[in-house]
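User: what does the whole thing look like in 3D?
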Amino acid sequence: MTHVVIDPHTFDELQASAGADFVAELVDTFAEEAPTIVAEMRAAFAEGSAERFRRAAHSLKSNSSTFGATRLAELARALELGGLPAHASGVDAVAHELGSTIVALREIARA
Amino acid sequence: MSERPAGATDPAPAQFGRFAIHLAERRLSVDGAPVTLGSRAFDLLAALVTRRDRVVPKDELIEVVWPGLVVEDNNLQVQISALRKVLGTQAISTVPGRGYQFTVAAQPAPAATPPGARPSRAHERRGAGRPRTPRLLVADDNKVNRLLLCRSLELMGHDVTTVENGRSALERLRAEPFDLLLLDLEMPELDGFGLLEQRADDAALQDVPVIVTSSLEGAAAVARCIELGADDYLHKPVNPVLLKARVDASLERKRLRDHQRELLARLGGDRPEGASAAADAVGRHVEATLLSARLHGIDALAALQPAQDTLELLSSWTTLMLDAIEGQGGIVHQMAGDAVAAVFGMSESEPASGGAIWPAVQAALEMRELVAAFNAERAVLAKPAIALAIGIARGSVVAGRAGTPRRAADVCVGAAVQRAARLEELAGGLGAGTVLLDGSSRVALAGRVVTDTLAPAVLPGSADAVPVHALENTA
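Assistant: Here's the predicted 3D structure for the full assembly of 586 residues, as structure tokens:
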């Protein structure tokens, strides 16, 4: 099983400043939005649009950082700064990490 | 205590934006966290809150906080300054010549925005017409970022509107008044850079300050935003403490600009609809009194203490100086961290012939007393004293708004402005608290204060050395 990295300090600070219930709902919003961002990355890759791909990766990096999902943020950042990749393995890795991250975030958000 | 606050028996805390105030239990919390206030400061807060429907005269506040005692105004102003550091400058307004008023609107109890409110509808619950509540516009295409930023700002007590791209943001800015725009860079239709470019060519949009929030990496994006006129830049994820500090600072600068413009407009006339800022460089000559004040020795002090201490010191000093100046009807036309320049006599209600000198001198005396009280507080904390120097000059000035279509500023120019600055420099070399006057100011005072005549000096506007006068410690 993949070990998901959520920075507890970042997540705790988010809950302290915005409220735990609000953050739980924000995690739900992330869970709805993030798969569409990954889909956007796949579409940009298929289309060969480097700028569209970068923007989507940037957006995912930004949200991951907000929750302290450091591994997902690092993967998304590598795609944001790396240009249009030669193959889709990077996006696959992000999609896989995203699924695990959402599960982990929901667990700690409702703990 | 001879008088208890009218709301002292309230069983529940009252919510004012980010603040919960429990008068009966003498407790204050900000964003849910308890804040410790001194006994006098809490009495003062209670007096202002329970009388928030009106401006409360200084004498009335002093009687509530120091019942039966003879207390100078500067003690009150130091307590006001302490409250503003906790509540934010805008929470308590100074009404020149009248007193103070608590400005944060009360919310229905229980708290309208407790942690845990639904994020997706948070901004829809806010009333649009609440008076004095700053109106903020958030432009961000990312829903998570948008909701979180909106939430953070609402918890600070602001009225927040959100849009998803730069095009919509421009439309809203042109249609409605906003106090601040928080702008993402990466957005569809029109991105943040595009919005800043359009704003740079539209003088009307420049009245709304912009804080860019972005997770773009590298200094290039920051530099480009600043070049395009953005006021500040915050990296995402946005630190809530920094967010509050930057938002408060931007709103305070805008409030000050709006206030200055309102008064300066009496000289130069209002800007015609659609005219560029540069076109405001009209105005007329007015006889006014100029005051220049500086905190001397701050460079040496800054080298010896943590940067944060220096910034806090400058913030406290600026708050006290603005209070003294605005309390006497002066208008600050220049601020530079450790220096403040103000003009008196621009109000139409003040006669030009000598009427403005007295408020300027009173402001100077008040500034001196405030710094003395401030130094007494610092001495208790084993912190070194600060030294104030002031120059006052009278003469003809031109005030208005000047600049390029991209960058414009309120200006006040004339030899008297330079004379006041030169006198302040000379005062800095004569010891802490020195207030120097030019000859014209001394004549206009007509003996109402005691002055010493010092060695002549060459001042701007005069080819030869002219007498310089020092204000004595008693008025």
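In plain terms: Chain A has a mean pLDDT of 93. The domain at 19-109 of chain A is CATH 1.20.120 (Four Helix Bundle (Hemerythrin (Met), subunit A)).
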